[in-house]
């Protein structure tokens, strides 16, 4: 169901972009502090990264329930509910730190992961208000919010880590809750029509999900998103560890990640226009080629510039690949099928991201692990790049 007017559509996109900037600051907070707090609270140092892993698990597991909720009650009410989960998750995590209880802290990060499963669908909500080539532009504009989220999250950590004497990091997770509250206030102003009563009750509307999932169009679109995002997480997770192991400083590794994040979201200012000009499949294929280029640079040397250039290529490649794949998904469903198809897509994407993060941590610490990881990039890309290119050339990607 689309919005009533272009003005409403533009207003919704602005709200979603702001919501992405504010709400999307939660993951950087979790990623920055999850391992540090986990090391302080966990009974075994081996469990130090468990809070971050559980966040990713909550994100993956929460995608299908989030899609169900929004299909039943609408985007606006669903996002309000998700923001409430985020408020609670931040407060539970803060309580776990204050009480020095590892399990409570982990419960908080899982809840923030559930919150994240709602945030991830902002890009799809932007397409509810527009049609045609404007869908890619709308997705790209909302993704710009991620650029600001990548700045806001770390700044919250820097300014609040020691704000409460004797209770380090508690204020940071209270800050996460405050950002979720601000997100709630923003999304409550969305004007996206609620689904019809019949559609909200009949959650099996449209084709069966299994039939859609077996269609070549969905397989290619979802596969492109999975490979783009999973490979990005796979290499990004391991790069700081590999850099330090090669003699580079933690500061140099951190700077490299900062450039990577800027490369991830900076192109969103024009990715939508590129898709409108050249097509979503072409832009997605270009993103995959750039990710392959990242692996080529990484395998060519272990100098600082090799790591930094590889991270920048990885970020731009993810942007083109993921936004292109998201635009492809919008061609895979009818309006009544939208919620379940988008939910399945996000479940596949973020489930693969969680798996890739675990695998990266295991491989990078093995002998020649960094080289092996980068060699694995090529076959993964070829699996989707070949049908993507052939589909574009021979016009079968829409079959």
UniProtKB/TrEMBL annotation:
This is MFS family permease. Residues 216-399 form the Major facilitator superfamily (MFS) profile domain. InterPro entries: MFS, MFS_dom, MFS_trans_sf. PROSITE patterns: MFS. Keywords: Membrane, Transmembrane, Transmembrane helix. It comes from Martelella mangrovi. The chain crosses the membrane at residues 21-41, 53-70, 77-94, 100-118, 138-160, 166-187, 218-245, 257-276, 283-302, 308-332, 344-364, 376-395. It holds the Pfam family MFS_1.
